[in-house]
Amino acid sequence: MTDPQLAHATEFGRMYSRSLTSAPEVPSITTVIAQEAKDFTGWAGHMATSELISDARLNGAVGSAADLRRLAREASSAAERFRDAAAARGDRVHAYAEQLALSALGSAADPDGARAALAQRGESRFADRLDEWWQLYGVKPVAAEVTVWNHTVGYAGTLDLVAEIGGRLCILDFKTKGLTRDGRAKPLNDSVVMQLVAGFRAEEVLVDAAAGSWEPWPYAEAEVEPVLLAVAVSEAEVVPMQADSSSLRTHWRKFWALRQVWEHARTCAESGRALNPVGPPPASVPAGP
Fold it and tell me: CATH no. for residue 213?
């Protein structure tokens, strides 16, 4: 499931509610992480330029300012279209991973349907590589698409998978990746460690969305901490990466700080206008004799 039941799109980003009938209360893990400013202007410019120079209509548009402006306008949205297409592809890959896990758990599942959705778009190799990795690592799902909540800091999120691998309990986050020029999976961003550690530091786990029932997160006090795995899934390979335990405290502190940024941004937005126009002062009255 790529659209958790208790997640809501709001003007402050994705937020979570406690039940199907309650209002959103806290930001999602990914919304908190998104508070970190990242400059994609160079990439966006590259995408727009690449689309423009490869457009078959470009030669015919030379000499026509109107036609060139139209092509430039269309090319300017290339980065957004690429981002949206990549997000949709990621949703399909996540859906297949979820169906694999649910099937292994004996729950109602349709992995064939999820695979067919990938095949319709020529993306079967993502499923093939995931199948190979799943068997090679002997993944034994414990729970899939697990919604968790942290009251102390104030956030919620949905973990892709909790599973046993090699006799260790693991918390996994799948990231769909494209390929580098040498045909390998593109590297994962370190920000995924914040996502994993925030999930690990949950305090409650959802039991029933309709009833709004939750229970304590069972892994917070585990004698052996779960292994936190970020799993890059590409058409060529699946690359699991373990979060370094020595870095978890640092990334947790960064996540905490970004949560404060989100809170202050919302407070400022809700407080109304910060700047108001000021008219000229009244004309001064000439002093008497």
Answer: 3.90.320
